[in-house]
Specification:
It contains 14 helices and no strands. It is mainly alpha-helical and about 325 residues long. Helix 2 crosses helix 10 and helix 11 runs parallel beside helix 14. The two termini are about 15 Å apart.
């Protein structure tokens, strides 16, 4: 049990410490509101684009895709989205908070901490599987997030389908996924050289471009967490108590219970085989806290940025305990 707790602690504590650095920096006067806003915009435009581009482009296309697990996982995410969408209307009267609560039901921090958490639980073999799931899962997260936040923005005018589509296309995260996917497809269809690799890759033929993108992608998550901590206002917790409790429960309790309940039932029925590596990736997908980029997108798209920031922080803090419970239960069942 001590080792299990150490796994969860090692996965989540770096996130909390970076948030704390931002909070202390803002309180000490090193980060003004204007600075926080400008850094946030820059990271959203360049950092998140680079991170998603690099993650997608680096997918190992030679490994077989677990299609049944992938299809079932996406079905679970759709179910969680519908539950969150319906529940948000009962959980808050404020329209601009409903998009955030809906995301709490389905959107995890998979893109940022998924690799680290899965590798901690199942070793290097889990890393390649995490990358395979990033394209469908992260694309779904961000498309649906733009959709619900467009519908539930604080604007008086209801957005048209064209407006929603334009917001999706302009979203740097969506752009990074699409750009990475296009480059990946091109790389897959190029003829191979004598060493078995494609005759042209960004890493081998244009390393200066790939290195720049890689550095930006590595900067993205730490900077996003620091800005999140700097944006946090503890005094607002009481005013958002109902929404915070609801969002935390949906993200850290409901999502893993429903997700693993369906997966375990499918494994028991013989529909799929749930290996320890796959279980580790599913822990990252269903059990991790609310995505850091939720707070960034909320600020950019007219949603409640304070609720989003509070939910990211509190789900990150409390996930230390829920992850411990999830991992302990899965190990006892022989799934980890």
């Amino acid at each position: 049990m001590q080792q299990v707790f150490a796994y969860s602690l090692n996965a989540v504590m770096p996130i909390l410490l970076l948030i704390l650095c931002g909070y202390i920096g803002q309180r000490a006067g090193y980060l003004s509101e204007k600075t926080i806003t400008e850094i946030n915009k820059y990271n959203f435009r360049f950092g998140f684009f680079s991170m998603l581009f690099v993650n997608i482009y680096n997918v190992d296309v030679h490994k077989a895709l677990p299609l049944m697990l992938m299809a079932l996982t996406m079905g679970i995410l759709v179910l969680l989205t519908l539950i969150g969408w319906g529940a948000s209307a009962f959980l808050t009267k404020e329209k601009y908070r409903r998009g955030i609560l809906t995301q709490a039901a389905f959107r995890s921090n998979y893109a940022v901490i998924g690799t680290m958490l899965a590798e901690t639980l199942a070793g290097p073999e889990a890393v390649s599987l995490v990358a395979m799931f990033q394209l469908p899962a992260v694309l779904y997260f961000n498309v649906m997030s733009v959709l619900v936040m467009s519908i539930y923005s604080d604007s008086e005018e209801k957005p048209s389908p064209v407006d929603v589509l334009i917001k999706m296309v302009k979203n740097p995260i969506i752009q990074g996924i699409l750009a990475g996917t296009v480059c990946l497809v091109i790389r897959m269809n190029l003829p191979a050289g004598r060493n078995g690799e494609p005759i042209f890759t960004l890493r081998n033929n244009l390393p200066w471009i790939m290195t720049a993108f890689t550095h930006l992608s590595r900067m993205c998550s730490p900077l996003a967490l620091i800005v999140l901590g700097a944006s946090l206002k503890i005094e607002q917790t009481k005013a958002l108590k109902k929404e915070l409790i609801s969002g935390v429960v949906m993200r850290l309790v409901m999502a893993p219970v429903i997700g693993f309940g369906i997966l375990i039932a499918a494994a028991d029925s013989g529909l799929l085989i749930l290996t320890p590596v796959e279980s580790a990736v599913m822990v990252s997908l269903f059990g991790s806290p609310l995505a850091t980029s939720t707070a960034i997108m909320a600020r950019e798209m007219g949603a409640d940025k304070d609720l989003a920031a509070q939910l990211v922080v509190w789900t990150s803090v409390l996930s230390m305990f829920t992850l411990f419970v999830i991992v302990a239960m899965l190990r006892r069942m022989g799934l980890l």
